[in-house]
Amino acid sequence: MSFFTITHQDKHSLARTGVIHTAHGDIETPVFMPVGTQATVKSLDSADLENLDAQIILANTYHLHLRPGEDIINDCGGLHKFMNWNRPILTDSGGFQVFSLSKNICKSGLSGNPDYYKDQGKLALIDDEGVTFTSHLDGSTHRFTPESAIEIQHKLGADIIMAFDECTPDDADEKYTREAMERTHKWAERCLTYHKNIKTLKHLPDMPDGKSWQAGKNKQFLFGIIQGANHKELREESARAISAMDFDGIAIGGESVGFNMDATKKILDWVNPIIPKNKPHYTMGVGFSPSDLFEVVERGVDMFDCVAPTRMARNGALFCHCEERGTSDEAIQFGSPRLFEARDNGNKHRININNAKYRDDKSPIDPLCTCSTCKNYTRAYLHHLFKAEELLAYRLATIHNLHFFLNLMREIRQAIKDNKFLELKKEWI
RNA sequence: GUGACCAUAGUUUAACGGUAAAACUGCGGAUUGUGGAUCCGCUAUCGAGGGUUCAACUCCCUCUGGUCACC
């Protein structure tokens, strides 16, 4: 069985449905992947995630390496067993954290020693071999190389692992962006080589069937990452280079991806003719709002992740079909809540439950939502929990926001199969 | 009852003879390969009355309220 099967191609766009096969089960695409950086989707446990029918979640190499350390997780039987999650997991390689920790390095040049950068308050130093960085936890010095990033991910035991890349800031000059991109390509080759050649690990993470996990082929799938910032030629060159390598999937990374949707759309339009259609396409960091999901799915993206629904939940920003302006009942009576919302709320599709107007609102967060939070609790109660900073607020809100995104993805997959994707998109945007 | 001190934003506190600063709260906004984090706006005619002065939250008097000490 191949890793990825396309099950339906939309007739009017690049949108498509598919299935990714992993040792921990199948994933229907296009899929939104909730983020669980530190081996937990904040405020939820694995039973909550199963109830939400999350198909796959993310964890982060950088954070788990620093704490508790991959050896401890490996010793506990791997990430799945460690966090009691038996469905697929994807680990990010840590490349993005290097970017976010060292944002301004390229402006000041690359020569010098780590102490210099430390003194400047910069937390990472990139060279051709790898990255030296200081921990955000205790300031201790660490180093990632393509080889170590893959080895850590082998020990963590996620189903899908990412190549170690360098994500450059968009305001870097073109010379540096090219340099970093070429380095990312060399690192991609090194990740592949290390991934394929590794023979054994001290402790093999457990597989769901009770057999031992085997490093390498067909057990963990490795994705390459296209970089090149917002330069057309660099993006095309990177797409060609990454596509030519033996990766199981193709990711598109960069500061703009997800953050700036106009740039994201352009980048996808540039690379789409180049990247192989039979591999999963993954835009990293996309999913800030419902409209973002439509934009990338329309351009043939199969996987995406974003911290937005979970982080927003913790800050009281709750997604909604219909923003009130008046009450949610009136919105329903309006006839088409989605259109009502699109016109009246700048298409943000969310409310801030902290707002005083929800103090005595006895309707659910979203009257059209079927999640357990909306079935059982009122806006007034959620408002109170947030004001009182009660821990239940975070869990109920996270359940709602994730349900909203995962359910929207189910609708999108169905619409693609019915060749009605663009019609569904019009309802939302 | 006597004496001392105090009264400034919802709360706790600043400053200054030239129309008031801050923290927290409150009311909004931001949030993108996760810090339950953080950031950004907005909110006061200074207990009441009178006096001195070009000008008083600031100095003086009275009242009201409070705190402490003594009887």
Automatic annotation (TrEMBL):
Residue span(s) of domain tRNA-guanine(15) transglycosylase-like: 14-428
Listed InterPro entries: ArchSynthase1/Queuine_TRR, TGT, TGT-like_sf, tRNA_ribo_trans-like
Record's GO cellular component terms: cytosol
Positions of Zn(2+) binding: 369, 371, 374, 400
Associated pathway: tRNA modification; tRNA-queuosine biosynthesis
Source superkingdom: Bacteria
Catalytic residues in the record: 92, 305
Biological role stated in the UniProt entry: Catalyzes the base-exchange of a guanine (G) residue with the queuine precursor 7-aminomethyl-7-deazaguanine (PreQ1) at position 34 (anticodon wobble position) in tRNAs with GU(N) anticodons (tRNA-Asp, -Asn, -His and -Tyr). Catalysis occurs through a double-displacement mechanism. The nucleophile active site attacks the C1' of nucleotide 34 to detach the guanine base from the RNA, forming a covalent enzyme-RNA intermediate. The proton acceptor active site deprotonates the incoming PreQ1, allowing a nucleophilic attack on the C1' of the ribose to form the product.
Protein name, as recorded: Queuine tRNA-ribosyltransferase
Protein species of origin: Candidatus Magasanikbacteria bacterium RIFCSPLOWO2_12_FULL_43_12
Gene that this sequence comes from: tgt
